[in-house]
Amino acid sequence: MNIEKQDRPRVVVIGGGFAGLNLAKRINTQKYQVVLIDKNNYHTFQPLLYQVASAGLEPDSIAYPLRKKFRRKKNIHFRIAEVTKVDTKVKTIETSIGPISYDYLVIASGAKTNFFGMKNVEQFSIPMKSLVESLNLRSRILEQFEDALNQDQVNEINKRLTFVIAGGGATGVELAGALAELKNKILPKDYPDLDIRKMQIHLVEGSDRLLASMSTKASEKAERFLKKLGINVWTSMRVEDYDGDIVRMKDGMDIPSKTLIWAAGVSANPIDGFQTDDFERDRFLVDGNCQLLHHEGVFAIGDVASFKPANEDRPLPMLASVAMQQGNYLAKYFNKNLNYKNFKYIDKGTMATIGRNKAVVDLKKFRFSGIFAWFVWMFVHVMLLVGYRNRVIVLVNWFWNYVSYNNGLRLIVRNSKEDPKSNEKRTNKKSVHL
Ligand SMILES: Cc1cc2nc3c(=O)[nH]c(=O)nc-3n(C[C@H](O)[C@H](O)[C@H](O)COP(=O)(O)OP(=O)(O)OC[C@H]3O[C@@H](n4cnc5c(N)ncnc54)[C@H](O)[C@@H]3O)c2cc1C
Predict the structure, then answer these.
(1) Does some domain include residue 432?
(2) How confident is the model over 357-366, as a mean pLDDT?
(3) Kind and range of the H or E element at 226?
(4) pLDDT by residue (tens digit) across 192-250?
(5) In terms of CB atoms within 10 Å, which of 85, 105, 142, 169 comes out highest?
(6) Are residues 19 and 33 both part of a single domain?
């Protein structure tokens, strides 16, 4: 990689997500030469991906160009590249644009979708882990309505109007709520030739309650809100197989559907070059300073790190707030010449929204739901977005959606034949019998 070595130590950071970005923003570049590498040239605000998928926000408003972020910061070099391997013996990483050496390495490569080894599900379902995937999902959802218009068999129409979401965590719950809003307020006007009341949304969760990481009160409220919006909630159920036409559940129940949205799990996304004893469930085992247990000078932060607070067996959850705090912490640790107290996570609470006017919020001392929770949810998400422009655009979009029920983002931006997961060619029958 064509980056001149300086006389200050070089810190290579893999990943410009929540963890890597916050580290790169705060590290003192008078003391260190920083090289930030990401396979994309932008940071993605993943908590709002579901709004892109459900045509509520444009993709650009939840992403931020990494180069723009560091325009005014000296001694920071950004490169678009995929990191493929780390060689800790010679302190070098291999990337798609060539190798680069490091004095310190920070791995912040996040997580990837976990299909739990179900090959068919991986082939035919649609995940929502990246901007590209959420845009694909938006197109795929809208295509179902276009295709339904061209069908004359009731079961074929129903299959296209049935959407199954696997995973009842915050992502699944929020997406289900957003799809219900589309069904109830927007699609009937866009598709007067279709009976949109036939649209079915199923939310399938393996454990016995939605939002399992939140309080039982929040779970119950979320389930009640979703059912009120017309969503079929299935708890203690698991998707076992999917062939692009029928979603098969563990207990033998089948749901005919052309769209299975996979929000049921992620696993860490580590980089090659390490031994099995460096990991726990694919996450790098780290000490109190986020340094790998067996590799001095190599750090892991965010989703890819298994950080266990003192006297606890369970690692911190894969959350944006953990990743951001670890990024901030590690910058401080470097700035203090690697001599600073251990990282301590401050849990500021969790929240999820369910359509308009409804959300559930669990703070340390308070739990609340309803419209006030919805405003808190909006405020927190806007404030966490990167860039003032994005904040303003998201706020304007939300306001416009709220008053008009019509944001005009319902574009199919690719040909379905290009969709590698599309299991059929679009039909173009002329006659329509509904
Ligand atoms: C749909 C969705 C909704 C979510 N909602 C919430 C929420 O409401 N609240 C919450 O707290 N958390 C939420 N999360 C989790 C949160 O987004 C993650 O915990 C957070 O993104 C982790 O930050 P990170 O920096 O570890 O990884 P990421 O933000 O995923 O960043 C990893 C970066 O590394 C880059 N990268 C990966 N591999 C390589 C490679 N080999 N070479 C080069 N670059 C690489 C990626 O391009 C990416 O930019 C959500 C996640 C998803 C997917």
Answers:
(1) no
(2) 92
(3) helix 216-228
(4) 999 999 999 999 999 999 999 999 999 999 999 999 999 999 999 999 999 999 999 98
(5) 105
(6) yes
Q: What is the CATH number of the domain that holds 299?
A: 3.50.50.60
Number of domains in the chain: 2
Told to judge if 174 belongs to the known catalytic residues of this protein, a careful annotator would answer yes
Closest CA to 171 of 48, 82, 57, 23: 48
Specify whether 361 is located in the same domain as 395. Answer: yes
Q: Identify whether residues 157 and 220 lie together within a single domain.
A: yes
Residue 68 located in a structural domain: no
In a mutational test of the pocket of ligand 1, which residue from 319, 353, 385, 386 has the highest number of ligand atoms less than 8 Å from its CB?
319
Q: Which amino acid is at 134?
A: S
Read off the pLDDT of residues 55-93 as tens digits, 9 standing for 90 and up.
999 999 999 999 999 998 888 999 999 999 999 999 999
- Residues within a 6 A CB radius of ligand 1: 14-20, 37-40, 46-47, 49, 82-83, 108-111, 128-129, 170-171, 269, 271, 302-304, 318-321, 323
Domain that holds residue 328: 10-39+81-113+267-335
CB 228 within 8 A of CB 217: no
Same domain for 253 and 393, yes or no, is yes
- pLDDT tops 50 at residue 139: yes
- For residues 59 and 53, give the distance between their C-alpha atoms in angstroms, rounded to a whole number: 9
Which pair of tokens denotes residue 148?
A: 């339904």
Residue minimizing CA distance to atom 15 of ligand 1: 319
- Site to probe by mutation for ligand 1, drawn from 96, 109, 269 as the one with most ligand atoms within 8 Å of Cβ, is 109
Query: Looking at the structure, do residues 208 and 288 belong to the same domain, yes or no?
Result: no
Whether 101 is in a domain gets the answer yes
**Using CA atoms, how far apart are residues 321 and 381, in angstroms rounded to an integer?**
11
Alpha carbon distance 227, 221 (integer Å): 10
Which residue minimizes the CA distance to atom 41 of ligand 1?
A: 83
CA 110 to centroid of ligand 1, rounded, Å: 5
pLDDT in tens, 309-321: 998 999 999 999 9
Residue among 174, 181, 205, 223 flagged as catalytic: 174
Pair (374, 406) in one structural domain? yes
In a domain, 95, yes or no: yes
Q: Does 423 score more than 60 pLDDT?
A: no
Rg (CA), the chain: 23
- Ligand 1 closest atom vs CA 82: 42
What pLDDT, in 10s, does the model give residues 120-137? Answer: 999 999 999 999 999 999
